[in-house]
Automatic annotation (TrEMBL):
Keywords: Fatty acid biosynthesis, Fatty acid metabolism, Lipid biosynthesis, Lipid metabolism, NAD, Oxidoreductase. It comes from the Bacteria. Belongs to the short-chain dehydrogenases/reductases (SDR) family. FabI subfamily. Pfam families: adh_short_C2. GO terms for biological process: fatty acid biosynthetic process. SUPFAM superfamilies: NAD(P)-binding Rossmann-fold domains. The active site is at 150 (proton acceptor), 160 (proton acceptor). It is an enzyme of class 1 (oxidoreductase). It comes from Arenibacter echinorum. This is Enoyl-[acyl-carrier-protein] reductase [NADH]. Its EC number is 1.3.1.9. InterPro entries: Enoyl-ACP_Rdtase_NADH (IPR014358), NAD(P)-bd_dom_sf (IPR036291), SDR_fam (IPR002347).
Length: 270
């Protein structure tokens, strides 16, 4: 279903790797809603992923950028404005990676070089993206910036490892930069705290398959899918949410406010 909610709006979408990526689904949905955008990802992901297919489907250009490189981001912002013919209305940050998780290091046995790299990619990159946009005065008034996060920022999920700390930092950056972007440029900044979702990044978390089923049984509405997340993001990029800013918005079928569900109780009964 399409409502033309993003007709005439221009943006940048980070993080579409393959058809499972939340950013991939979001790009398709934004396209269906009339928005145009530049796709970006790390140069190495370009080789592994299938982003060309998405670009073709949505009539978009691709500008590679490592989200930890200020130089790459400044270049991306300049090129995006050239390609799209003006300032930007929406930006999606859908980037996450923990080197400790990838290398099988437990939270109590972090290698700090790995920690620093993962934090740079997953959390500081959000500040870097916004600083590049801010300094270039690249955002239109009433524009909207969204990053994706997870509830491990508030509550402990042991296997989420150092990504929990990265997400806490990411959410804080949304509030802090949201103040300045709101005051100076009338731009809103929010994070969406999404249900566990079967993507490349999601499946990197130990015990993911059991955990996604547990979350589904704990959520009165069931887990929010990648497509649900795409739909929600479209509302945040639309003019219908102009005064929502500096928020961490739970998009999880009710998981975050559920103590226990009947299904979970039943699984313990004798
Ligand atoms: P994904 O693996 O499809 O996307 C992660 C993206 O980050 C990839 O496209 C990857 O190439 C990109 N990336 C990694 N390093 C980069 C760098 N240096 N520069 C630029 N891009 C880089 O997985 P997914 O799940 O779609 O992830 C998107 C966001 O959603 C992440 O922030 C993730 O933490 C968040 N999220 C995911 C959940 C899940 O269960 N899958 C739940 C809640 C939040």
């Amino acid at each position: 279903m399409s409502f033309n909610l993003l007709k005439g709006k221009k943006g940048i979408i980070f993080g579409a790797l393959d058809a499972n990526s939340i950013a991939w689904k979001t790009a398709e949905t934004i396209h269906a809603e009339g928005g145009t955008f530049v796709l970006t990802n790390a140069p190495i992901a370009m080789r592994m992923g299938q982003i060309d297919e998405l670009a073709k489907k949505t009539g978009s250009k691709i500008v590679p950028a490592d989200a930890t490189s200020v130089e790459d981001l400044d270049n991306l912002v300049t090129q995006a404005m050239e390609i799209l013919g003006g300032k930007i209305d929406f930006v999606l940050h859908a980037i996450g990676m923990s080197v400790n998780v990838r290398k099988g290091r437990d939270y109590t046995d972090e290698k700090y070089d790995f920690t620093t790299k993962g934090w740079d990619v997953s959390a500081l990159s959000f500040h870097k993206v916004m600083q590049s946009l801010y300094k270039a005065d690249a955002m239109n008034e009433w524009g909207s910036i969204v990053a994706l996060t997870y509830m491990a920022a508030q509550r402990t999920f042991p296997d989420y490892n150092d990504m929990a700390d990265n997400k806490a930092y990411l959410e804080s950056v949304a509030r802090s930069f949201g103040y300045f972007f709101g005051k100076e440029k009338k731009v809103r900044v929010n994070t969406i705290s999404q249900s566990p979702t079967a993507t490349t990044a999601g499946q990197g978390v130990k015990g993911f398959n059991s955990f996604i089923s547990y979350a589904d049984k704990m959520s009165p509405l069931g887990n929010a899918t990648a497509q649900d997340c795409a739909d929600y993001t479209v509302t945040l990029f639309s003019d219908l949410t102009k005064k929502v800013t500096m928020q961490n918005l739970f998009h999880d079928g009710g998981f975050s406010n559920t103590g226990v569900s009947q299904e979970i109780i039943d699984s313990f009964s004798d």
